[in-house]
Write a structure and sequence with these properties.
Layout (H helix, E strand, L loop, with lengths): L2 E7 L7 H11 L4 E7 L5 H10 L4 E4 L13 E2 L1 H6 L4 E5 L2 E5 L2 H11 L8 E5 L5 H10 L4 E6 L2 H13 L3 E6 L12 E4 L22 E4 L8 H8 L3 E3 L1 H17 L5 H11 L1
Parallel strand pairs: 1-2, 1-3, 4-6, 7-8, 7-10, 8-9, 10-11, 11-12
Antiparallel strand pairs: 3-5, 5-6
Helix pairs in contact: 1-9, 4-5, 4-8, 8-9
C-alpha cells in the first residue's frame, strides 16, 4: 500500500523536507511519496479537508499554520499541548493527531555531540515562533537559568512567564543591552530570523568565552554571520540544519515506527543547502 505524506505552509517552494523524506524512503525501499503542498493563510480549513479526501497518511506543518492547526486536531501529544503549536500530524482513518518535534529536534545535536545542558546558563536571542519549543527543551534538560533577549519586551515577558511555569529561572533584557556581558553564558542561541538574508549577526560576540556553545536555528545559509563570529571566538558551533534534521528524523519515526536513516537524510539535506 503506497503512502503519501506532505508539508503544508506558505511559502513552501524553499522547503527541504521533500528531499529529506524522499531520501529516507529510497534508503529503506518504502513505497511512499512526500509532496510540498501550498496552503495560504486563511485557507487552512479547506486545505485540511482536501488532504483528508486524498487520505494523506501524515503531514508536516510550517509557517504560518503551526498554531492555527491546533484547532483542527482530534488529539495532541504532550509536547504539542505544552508548546501550543504543531508541526507533525498523523492521519489514522480521519483522526488527526498532532505532535511538535521542534523541542526534540532542537535538543538532538546536544545529544549527538554529548554536550551538557543541565546546570547551564543560556542566552536566547529572540522570542518568536521557535522560542517556546527551545525554552521547553532547556527546561526538560534542567538548565539552570535562561536570559531572553528581544527587541519587543512584551513578547519576551510572555515567554519568560511560560519558562517560569515550567520551572526555568528566567530574566528578560533588551537585545541591545547584551553585548558586554557574554562571559557568564555557557550557551548562546540565535532564535531570530536574522541571518536568513545574510545579515550581520544580531549581536557582537566579542565578550564571549571560548568553548561557549553557539547555536543558530537559521539553516540557510548554513554559515551565518552569527556562527562565523562564534567560530572566531573559538565557540562550539551547532548549525541550524542539525535542528532541521533532528525534527525530520523524529517526524519520520512518528509516521513509520522504525528508526530513521539519519545519514541518508543528512546527505540529502546537505545536498540541498
Amino acid at each position: 500500500m503506497s503512502k503519501t505524506f506532505a508539508v503544508i505552509g506558505d511559502p513552501i517552494d524553499h522547503s527541504l523536507s521533500p528531499n529529506i523524506h524522499s531520501a529516507a524512503f529510497r534508503e529503506l525501499n518504502l513505497d511512499c511519496s512526500y509532496i510540498a503542498y501550498k496552503i495560504s493563510k486563511g485557507e487552512l480549513k479547506e486545505g485540511i479537508e482536501s488532504l483528508k479526501k486524498i487520505k494523506i497518511d501524515g503531514f508536516n506543518v510550517t509557517i504560518p499554520h503551526k498554531i492555527e492547526m491546533m484547532k483542527y486536531l482530534d488529539k495532541t501529544d504532550e509536547s504539542c499541548s505544552l508548546i501550543g503549536a504543531v508541526n507533525t500530524v498523523t492521519n489514522t482513518e480521519g483522526i488527526l493527531k498532532g505532535y511538535n518535534t521542534d523541542m526534540e529536534g532542537f535538543l538532538d545535536p546536544f545529544k549527538k555531540k554529548n554536550l551538557r545542558v543541565r546546570g547551564t546558563k543560556i542566552l536566547l536571542l529572540g522570542a518568536g515562533g521557535a522560542a517556546r519549543a527551545i525554552v521547553a527543551g532547556f527546561a526538560k534538560e534542567k538548565a539552570k537559568h535562561i536570559t531572553i533577549a528581544n527587541r519587543t519586551l512584551e513578547k519576551a515577558n510572555n515567554l519568560a512567564q511560560f519558562a517560569n511555569t515550567i520551572g526555568l529561572d528566567t530574566k528578560v533584557i533588551n537585545i541591545e543591552n547584551v553585548e558586554n556581558d557574554l562571559g557568564q553564558y555557557n550557551i548562546i542561541v540565535n532564535a531570530t530570523s536574522i541571518g536568513l538574508k545574510n545579515e550581520t549577526s544580531p549581536i557582537s560576540l566579542e565578550s564571549m568565552r571560548p568553548k561557549t556553545i553557539v547555536y543558530d536555528i537559521v539553516y540557510l545559509p548554513m554559515n551565518t554571520d552569527f556562527l562565523k563570529k562564534g567560530k572566531e571566538r573559538e565557540g562550539i558551533v551547532i548549525y541550524g540544519y542539525e535542528m532541521l534534521l533532528g525534527q525530520a528524523v523524529r517526524a519520520f519515526e512518528i509516521w513509520h515506527n522504525i528508526e530513521a536513516p539519519y545519514n541518508a537524510m543528512k546527505k540529502a539535506l546537505l545536498g540541498g543547502v
